[in-house]
Design brief:
The protein has helices spanning about 30-35, 65-75, 85-90, 95-105, 105-110, 120-130, 140-155, 160-165, 175-185, and strands at about 5-10, 15-20, 25-30, 45-55, 60-65. It is α+β, with helices and mostly antiparallel strands and about 190 residues long.
Length: about 190
Protein backbone atom coordinates (compact mmCIF):
# COMPACT_ATOMS: atom_id res chain seq x y z
CA UNK A 1 0.00 0.00 0.00
CA UNK A 2 1.08 3.55 -0.67
CA UNK A 3 1.15 5.62 2.54
CA UNK A 4 2.46 8.95 1.27
CA UNK A 5 3.77 10.55 -1.88
CA UNK A 6 6.21 13.42 -2.14
CA UNK A 7 6.85 15.07 -5.46
CA UNK A 8 6.06 17.92 -7.82
CA UNK A 9 2.59 18.72 -9.04
CA UNK A 10 2.63 18.46 -12.84
CA UNK A 11 -1.14 18.73 -13.44
CA UNK A 12 -3.92 20.22 -11.34
CA UNK A 13 -7.64 19.87 -12.14
CA UNK A 14 -10.75 20.52 -10.07
CA UNK A 15 -10.97 16.87 -8.90
CA UNK A 16 -7.45 15.46 -8.97
CA UNK A 17 -3.78 16.27 -9.32
CA UNK A 18 -0.89 14.38 -10.84
CA UNK A 19 2.28 14.28 -8.78
CA UNK A 20 5.51 13.20 -10.41
CA UNK A 21 8.05 11.45 -8.25
CA UNK A 22 11.12 9.69 -9.65
CA UNK A 23 9.73 9.84 -13.18
CA UNK A 24 6.31 8.34 -12.34
CA UNK A 25 3.12 10.43 -12.35
CA UNK A 26 0.49 9.46 -9.78
CA UNK A 27 -3.14 10.54 -10.28
CA UNK A 28 -4.44 11.49 -6.83
CA UNK A 29 -8.04 12.41 -6.04
CA UNK A 30 -8.24 15.30 -3.57
CA UNK A 31 -10.91 17.31 -1.76
CA UNK A 32 -11.77 20.87 -2.84
CA UNK A 33 -10.27 22.11 0.44
CA UNK A 34 -6.93 20.41 -0.29
CA UNK A 35 -7.06 21.70 -3.86
CA UNK A 36 -7.45 25.28 -2.64
CA UNK A 37 -4.35 24.90 -0.46
CA UNK A 38 -2.21 23.68 -3.36
CA UNK A 39 -1.28 26.87 -5.15
CA UNK A 40 0.50 26.02 -8.38
CA UNK A 41 2.05 23.35 -10.56
CA UNK A 42 5.74 22.53 -10.05
CA UNK A 43 5.14 22.93 -6.32
CA UNK A 44 6.80 20.26 -4.15
CA UNK A 45 4.18 18.63 -1.94
CA UNK A 46 3.81 15.75 0.51
CA UNK A 47 0.41 14.05 0.59
CA UNK A 48 -0.83 11.33 2.93
CA UNK A 49 -2.43 8.66 0.76
CA UNK A 50 -5.35 6.29 1.06
CA UNK A 51 -5.12 3.52 -1.54
CA UNK A 52 -8.58 2.29 -2.52
CA UNK A 53 -8.59 -1.08 -4.29
CA UNK A 54 -11.56 -2.83 -5.89
CA UNK A 55 -11.57 -5.66 -8.39
CA UNK A 56 -11.30 -3.27 -11.34
CA UNK A 57 -10.00 -0.01 -9.84
CA UNK A 58 -6.98 1.23 -7.93
CA UNK A 59 -7.54 4.84 -6.83
CA UNK A 60 -5.37 7.12 -4.71
CA UNK A 61 -6.85 9.76 -2.39
CA UNK A 62 -4.51 12.43 -1.04
CA UNK A 63 -4.62 14.67 2.04
CA UNK A 64 -2.31 17.36 3.37
CA UNK A 65 -2.60 16.22 6.99
CA UNK A 66 -3.10 12.91 8.74
CA UNK A 67 -6.17 14.09 10.65
CA UNK A 68 -8.05 14.59 7.39
CA UNK A 69 -6.91 11.15 6.14
CA UNK A 70 -8.05 9.47 9.35
CA UNK A 71 -11.48 11.15 9.20
CA UNK A 72 -11.79 10.11 5.52
CA UNK A 73 -11.01 6.50 6.43
CA UNK A 74 -13.61 6.56 9.23
CA UNK A 75 -16.22 7.84 6.77
CA UNK A 76 -15.56 5.18 4.13
CA UNK A 77 -15.89 2.45 6.76
CA UNK A 78 -19.56 3.45 7.15
CA UNK A 79 -21.85 1.33 4.99
CA UNK A 80 -23.19 3.36 2.08
CA UNK A 81 -20.40 5.94 1.97
CA UNK A 82 -17.74 5.43 -0.65
CA UNK A 83 -14.51 7.34 -1.23
CA UNK A 84 -16.06 9.94 -3.54
CA UNK A 85 -18.90 10.55 -1.07
CA UNK A 86 -16.43 10.88 1.80
CA UNK A 87 -14.38 13.33 -0.26
CA UNK A 88 -17.46 15.47 -0.89
CA UNK A 89 -18.29 15.41 2.85
CA UNK A 90 -14.78 16.63 3.65
CA UNK A 91 -15.17 19.37 1.06
CA UNK A 92 -18.11 21.14 2.71
CA UNK A 93 -16.71 22.05 6.12
CA UNK A 94 -13.63 21.89 8.28
CA UNK A 95 -12.89 18.66 10.14
CA UNK A 96 -13.60 20.40 13.45
CA UNK A 97 -17.05 21.51 12.26
CA UNK A 98 -17.83 18.01 11.01
CA UNK A 99 -16.66 16.52 14.31
CA UNK A 100 -18.82 18.99 16.21
CA UNK A 101 -21.84 18.03 14.08
CA UNK A 102 -21.22 14.34 14.79
CA UNK A 103 -20.49 14.90 18.49
CA UNK A 104 -23.66 16.89 19.07
CA UNK A 105 -25.77 14.59 16.90
CA UNK A 106 -26.66 17.46 14.58
CA UNK A 107 -28.05 15.46 11.66
CA UNK A 108 -29.68 18.62 10.23
CA UNK A 109 -26.22 20.03 9.49
CA UNK A 110 -25.07 16.80 7.84
CA UNK A 111 -28.16 16.58 5.62
CA UNK A 112 -27.23 19.94 4.08
CA UNK A 113 -24.50 18.00 2.25
CA UNK A 114 -25.58 17.08 -1.27
CA UNK A 115 -26.29 13.35 -1.43
CA UNK A 116 -26.56 12.84 2.33
CA UNK A 117 -30.08 12.03 3.49
CA UNK A 118 -31.47 11.79 7.01
CA UNK A 119 -30.75 8.04 7.35
CA UNK A 120 -27.15 8.37 6.19
CA UNK A 121 -26.60 11.38 8.48
CA UNK A 122 -27.96 9.37 11.43
CA UNK A 123 -25.70 6.46 10.50
CA UNK A 124 -22.66 8.80 10.42
CA UNK A 125 -23.53 10.16 13.88
CA UNK A 126 -24.16 6.71 15.39
CA UNK A 127 -21.02 5.11 13.98
CA UNK A 128 -18.58 7.99 14.52
CA UNK A 129 -19.76 9.63 17.76
CA UNK A 130 -17.76 7.32 20.04
CA UNK A 131 -14.71 7.20 17.75
CA UNK A 132 -14.14 10.96 17.68
CA UNK A 133 -12.61 13.07 20.41
CA UNK A 134 -15.17 15.86 20.52
CA UNK A 135 -16.64 17.74 23.40
CA UNK A 136 -20.28 16.93 23.89
CA UNK A 137 -20.94 20.28 25.52
CA UNK A 138 -24.29 20.60 23.76
CA UNK A 139 -23.18 23.41 21.47
CA UNK A 140 -25.16 23.16 18.30
CA UNK A 141 -24.40 24.23 14.80
CA UNK A 142 -27.64 26.18 14.51
CA UNK A 143 -25.73 29.46 14.18
CA UNK A 144 -23.78 28.06 11.25
CA UNK A 145 -26.97 26.74 9.64
CA UNK A 146 -28.65 30.13 10.13
CA UNK A 147 -25.66 31.89 8.56
CA UNK A 148 -25.69 29.48 5.63
CA UNK A 149 -29.42 30.07 5.04
CA UNK A 150 -28.98 33.86 5.31
CA UNK A 151 -26.22 33.84 2.70
CA UNK A 152 -28.28 31.63 0.40
CA UNK A 153 -31.24 34.01 0.73
CA UNK A 154 -28.93 36.84 -0.38
CA UNK A 155 -28.30 34.98 -3.64
CA UNK A 156 -25.08 33.08 -2.92
CA UNK A 157 -24.88 29.40 -3.81
CA UNK A 158 -24.55 26.81 -1.07
CA UNK A 159 -20.95 26.09 -2.13
CA UNK A 160 -19.99 29.79 -2.08
CA UNK A 161 -21.59 30.20 1.35
CA UNK A 162 -19.83 27.11 2.77
CA UNK A 163 -16.44 28.22 1.43
CA UNK A 164 -16.90 31.63 3.05
CA UNK A 165 -18.00 30.03 6.35
CA UNK A 166 -14.78 27.99 6.44
CA UNK A 167 -12.84 31.27 6.58
CA UNK A 168 -14.97 32.98 9.24
CA UNK A 169 -13.58 33.34 12.77
CA UNK A 170 -14.75 30.49 14.99
CA UNK A 171 -16.79 31.17 18.10
CA UNK A 172 -18.48 34.39 16.96
CA UNK A 173 -22.23 35.03 16.99
CA UNK A 174 -24.43 34.56 13.93
CA UNK A 175 -24.59 38.26 12.96
CA UNK A 176 -20.79 38.54 13.06
CA UNK A 177 -20.50 35.33 10.99
CA UNK A 178 -22.81 36.80 8.36
CA UNK A 179 -20.87 40.10 8.23
CA UNK A 180 -17.49 38.33 7.97
CA UNK A 181 -18.80 35.93 5.31
CA UNK A 182 -20.18 38.82 3.28
CA UNK A 183 -16.81 40.58 3.42
CA UNK A 184 -15.12 37.40 2.21
CA UNK A 185 -17.67 36.88 -0.57
CA UNK A 186 -17.50 40.50 -1.75
CA UNK A 187 -13.70 40.28 -1.94
CA UNK A 188 -13.89 37.70 -4.72
Amino acid sequence: MIGSIKGKIILKTDKFIIIETIGVGYKINISPDTLSKLKKTNEEVLLWIHTHVREDILDLYGFLDRQELEFFEMLINISGIGPKGALSILGIASIETLKKAVGTGDTAYLTKISGIGRKTAEKIVIELRDKLEVSKSGTSLQGELDTLEALKSLGYSQNEAREALKKVSPGVDTNTKIREALKILSGK
